[in-house]
Amino acid sequence: MKAAQNATTGITGGYRILVVDDDPHMLATFERILGNADGLARPSEIRDPLNDAASKPLSTGVLFEIDAVLRGEDAVRVVRQGLEDGFPFSLVFMDLKLPGGIDGVEAMKDLWGVDPRIQVVLCTGVIDLPWEDLVAEINLRDNLLVIKKPFDEIEVLQAAYSMTCKWYLQKSVETQLSALEHRVEARSRALAEANEKLRAEIKEREKMETELRLAHKLEAIGQLAAGIAHEINTPTQYVSDNTQFLKDSFDTMVKMLRQTRDVIQGIQSGSVAPEAGAQKWFEMFEEADLDFIIDECPTAIDQSLDGLGRIAKIVRAMKEFSHPGSEQKTATDLNRALETTITVARNEWKYVAEVETDFDEELPLVDCHPGDINQVFLNIIVNAAHAIAAKRGENPEEKGRIHVVTRRLDDECEVRIEDNGPGIAEAHKQKIFNPFFTTKKLGKGTGQGLALVHAVIENHGGFIAVDSEEGRGTAFILRLPLGHGMAKG
Length: 489
Ligand SMILES: Nc1ncnc2c1ncn2[C@@H]1O[C@H](COP(=O)(O)OP(=O)(O)OP(=O)(O)O)[C@@H](O)[C@H]1O
Ligand SMILES: [Mg+2]
Prior knowledge:
Blueprint: E1 15-20, H1 24-35, E2 64-69, H2 72-84, E3 91-95, H3 104-114, E4 119-124, H4 131-138, E5 144-148, H5 153-269, H6 274-288, H7 290-321, E6 330-332, H8 334-344, H9 346-349, E7 353-358, E8 366-368, H10 370-392, E9 400-408, E10 412-419, H11 426-429, H12 449-459, E11 463-469, E12 473-481
Parallel strand pairs: 1-2, 1-3, 3-4, 4-5, 7-9
Antiparallel strand pairs: 6-8, 9-10, 10-12, 11-12
Helix pairs in contact: 1-5, 2-3, 5-6, 5-7, 7-8, 8-10, 10-12
This protein binds adenosine-5'-triphosphate (ATP) and magnesium ion (MG).
Magnesium ion (MG) binds next to helix 10.
């Protein structure tokens, strides 16, 4: 503690006490009573001797450090200064009757305005102020004690001890509370940080899952690419052949028209006889084989349009299939998504199976990530084709059957993809959704297809089940909640 020097009294000591009194006799009394308060411990030194090894005995030392001022205004100034110096007063002995502008009660109120913690002992004469009036005046606080003059020394000492001790305890409770608040704050901060970290990790995991899904999708598109190229190549071939035929036919017809013009001009000018002209025209008609051209051109045009239509359908399906994964779910037509997937996967199934669809035309739109859902359908359809091929060989006499059905349930859509392949062995049924479980040869399957299917359906809050019997075939049943998808039409 910094020692304070008081010009008026010259008293120095421990807890700071301010005496506000204009009577030199009273000042001397306070100095005598409080200035020699030896043989007592300061509250800060009182420790629990049972629990604290470093506990000291109640030490001796001057407990109080006393300053004195004569006027209420000075008291307020000195208390403010003490706070600013970091060496605050704990207790004020305040005479009720003071010289100068404000009396003891006013000064006391001002003091609490400066330092609400400060303890005050108000010293009144017998007839100074009735207690009720005082209570009404100062809005009684618990850091106030009133003693009446003339007082005993022991009264002053007791008041000084208990009020400074109270001041100290109040302060240390506040310190502990604030330390506790800091600890709670630190804990909350640590918790918030841990939460934030967890959130970041979840986000990172979701990102990785999305990337994995995208990688699998790209891989699937890569694998489908050869088949799709073949699917596009066939119609391209006959569109090209037909276009060549139309070009040749057009050239022949143009040549024929020009020759016709020459014959007619000859007849008009009289250099060719009409009969000879007509004869010539029929010869040219025969030579150009115009009957054939007239018969075949419409077919060639129809076939070309059909081929272009098929190419356009495959390209559109590819585009729809590789729909860029958006963060937002989209209202999606599952019938169309299935149609698209069946088209892009055609080369995977067309040699071993027929695909039959039985779509609910009233199927509402479903809120989903269409890219992921296409991926789900693709994996199940390709699995079905592989299963049928494994049972019947790659080029079977009689093709297998993949049956795709959609139905609306109450607030869900159901998709059922069924094959008449070999079925799934009882021992494998529990494992097919496990990542990397495969019964296929090395290089043919990675065992990720159904794991991905499961993750996507779960992510959509949907449901997936498998109904399979060895020798009969397998059905995958998916249910997706409609979400905010709007009814079609
Ligand atoms: N329709 C089905 N009929 C019979 N067995 C099936 C069928 N669908 C899946 N299975 C079995 O489930 C296993 C796991 O399928 P999944 O799609 O997860 O992996 P995969 O097809 O082996 O490899 P990937 O899809 O990664 O190329 C398959 O290896 C197969 O044994
Ligand atoms: Mg698979």
